[in-house]
Amino acid sequence: MTLAHEAFKRLCSYGKEETVAPGSILFRQGDAGLDLFVVLKGRLEMFETKRDGFVHVVHAVAEGAFTGELDLFNSRRSLLSCRATRRSDVLRISRERLQVLLQSEGDLAEAIVFACLGRREELMRAGHGGAVVIGSARCSDTLRVRDFFVRSRNPHRFVDVSLNEDAAALVHLLECSNADLPAVFLAGQGLLRNPSNRELAEPLGLAGKTVPRRECDLAIIGAGPAGLAAAVYAASEGLHTVVLERHATGGQAGTSSRIENYLGFPTGISGQQLAANAEIQAQRFGAELLITHAAGRICHCGERIDVELGDGAVIQAKAALVATGARYRRLDLEMSSDCAEKVAVHYAATPLEALHCAGEVVIVVGGGNSAGQAALFLSRHASHVHLVVRRDTLSETMSNYLIQRLSSNPNVTLHCGAAISRIEASGENTIAVIVRASDRRQSQCVTRNIFTMIGAAPNTEWLEGTLALDAAGFIVTGNTSDGIRSTYATSLPGVFAVGDVRSGSVKRVASAAGEGAAVISEIHRYLAEACAVSMTAA
Hints:
Layout: H1 5-12, E1 16-20, E2 25-27, E3 36-41, E4 44-49, E5 55-61, E6 81-84, E7 88-93, H2 95-104, H3 106-126, E8 131-135, H4 140-151, E9 156-160, H5 165-173, E10 183-186, E11 190-193, H6 197-204, E12 213-221, H7 225-236, E13 241-245, H8 271-284, E14 288-291, E15 295-301, E16 304-309, E17 314-322, E18 326-327, H9 337-342, E19 344-346, H10 351-356, E20 361-365, H11 369-378, E21 384-389, H12 400-407, E22 412-416, E23 418-426, E24 429-436, E25 442-446, E26 449-452, E27 457-458, E28 480-481, E29 484-485, E30 495-497, H13 509-537
Parallel strand pairs: 8-9, 12-13, 12-17, 13-14, 17-30, 19-26, 20-21, 20-26, 21-22
Antiparallel strand pairs: 1-7, 2-6, 3-7, 4-5, 4-6, 8-10, 10-11, 15-16, 16-17, 18-27, 23-24, 24-25, 28-29
């Protein structure tokens, strides 16, 4: 991507000119904290080095163009290397100066962010610079690892050992047992055997730098729609913001195949894409995201709030925001151990799950929008979809446009006022028995994949005894600070809660994002009051 002359001239004011010799390496695959390079004269090329040493040129960077993609905004490691193909004059813009540029130059920031998002999308499609995952498509850990790569926007190539003889031979050569699968090859990291998400996040540069203590203005726990919206508004208004996420960005919304009633997206947007856009937006304003870091405790420590992490590190913040959301409740199914080994229960409906059950009969359990979207999405991949709903009608819990589409979709069968009573074995098959509550009429469905999207269990176990919770475990808000009622304040001063985790909130993506944006004004007011009290005491 090249810039207009006037914009290019302004861009040059943020960097320093350097001359590089032919073959000079500007940065290597696996490096982090990269600077941005603009080609003033000459030519650069982006390339990856395969495991066998083969060098593959991905694309050239011509005069007037610049390097970089998502790794410019965070601690992600570079997926590609960069070298000069001839003697070249380049402009180097440091991380610090780039951050100033992103805050000060709206049009330049838009061009850089747009180009970086597009480049990462292309890398995702082509798999350049990514990991190689070797495992079984029906293995839950393989699905977990692949889901982590997809949701964290890291390209990967999957090799199924059950379909690829060379991969099976390699697994045998590496002395990998079934417990070691999936085996993951990362550039510069060697072989990882059935790694945890944290063991993947660290070499990818997603977990952030390991430090025993961080200080910030605002610590946000949870990077779903509410947490990310809060991060965007807080960082854009000058608050030093640190976001903690124990899994991957997007929260429950990130598992949605498509959200069609979100304001501003007339054709809809996937939960993963919405989360990816929000993540880079927050980082553009300077927010720091720490992926696979779970909060274990929150408490007052003097004038600050300590958020203790699972690894013993501490975030010291002036204020904290809990946006940990909710998760689908586990489906209580009666089945034998033999059936349990054959049936996969899913709590998300993304392209990965769709590949997993392509051409098969699947069951979706739930009556909300998430279940409806999942059923429609899966109907394009599965041979048939059975949607099982406990209520007698969908009108109270699902948007009308989804009801109309489901009713007219020949590949979807609705079972309202029904539930799965048990799973039975029948030879090599597993049969789900669906019972209609009104007359106890039974119907049977041969399936190996059940998608459950029922209920909402708040992610608040770690807060019991610290914050006031309602009977269902959601955080109670609406406390008074200095005579002023705060909609999102919890029972612990300086700690706020927004989104699905908050008692009484509307469980919708748009409302969660709205709460995340709205709470920042209350946090500003709290910080101003705390500062005034501190000055008075001094």
